[in-house]
Amino acid sequence: MPSDKRRRTGTQPALPEGVEDHGSFQRRFWIAQRVAWIAFALILGACLLGLLGRGGVFSSKTVGFSGGSIELPAISRWNAPDEMRVSLSASDEDRAVFVDARFFEVFSIDGVDPPQKATTRKGGRIGYIFGADPTASVTVVFRLQTQQPGRQRFFIGIDDDVIEQSTLILP
């Protein structure tokens, strides 16, 4: 019965001789542990959504053009491989994907699949020309390697439809 009385009044039982009370340290440790769990859960959620690099819904963006669309990295990691997917709509004429010199400061192109038919230069931009297919759209994959971290801006487009885009490259 005395133990029930102690619980009701809120007093702590006496500790044995030589044992110190570390209750306040333990409470602070538990709080720090819960904060770390929450921080880890937020980082894991950001990774799954693509906010910290390749993969996830927010890691890439698709830009539409009159001759097709380009899916390029919105968020990438420095010195990490990435890719850019270009969908060229069906056409009787060859199509060109244009990038400017700043694009090559942001990315190096490790490969193009399928390979381009030719390369051209127009208005200070470099164009990769791909053969036409009048019956179906063509998907081209550019395998990229990021060059430098930070918010990077460059021009990209299909045929004469070129716009400025940006990519965030995390260190």
Radius of gyration: 28 Å
Largest sheet geometry: 6 strands, mixed
Helix content: 10-25%
* CATH class category name of the largest domain: Mainly Beta
Tell me the CATH superfamily of the largest domain: ntegrin, alpha v. Chain A, domain 3
Strand runs, count? 11
- How many H/I helices? 3
Q: Terminal Cα separation, in Å?
A: 63 Å
- What are the segments in which pLDDT stays under 50 over at least 5 consecutive residues? 4-8
The H/E string reads HHEEEEEHEEEEEE
Average per-residue pLDDT, rounded, comes to 87
Structural class: alpha+beta
Strand content: 35-45%
Give your account of this protein's structure:
Strand 1 (60-65) and strand 2 form a beta hairpin. The model is unreliable at 4-8 (pLDDT under 50). The chain has 2 domains: 22-52; 60-170, ntegrin, alpha v. Chain A, domain 3 (Immunoglobulin-like, Sandwich), CATH 2.60.40. It is an alpha+beta fold and 171 residues long. The protein is rod-shaped and about 90 Å long. The strands form 2 sheets. The protein has a 6-stranded mixed β-sheet. A 5-stranded antiparallel β-sheet has the order 1-2-4-9-6. The N and C termini lie far apart (63 Å). It has helices spanning 2-9, 23-49, 101-106; strands at residues 60-65, 68-73, 75-77, 81-88, 95-100, 107-113, 118-122, 125-130, 138-146, 150-158, 161-170.
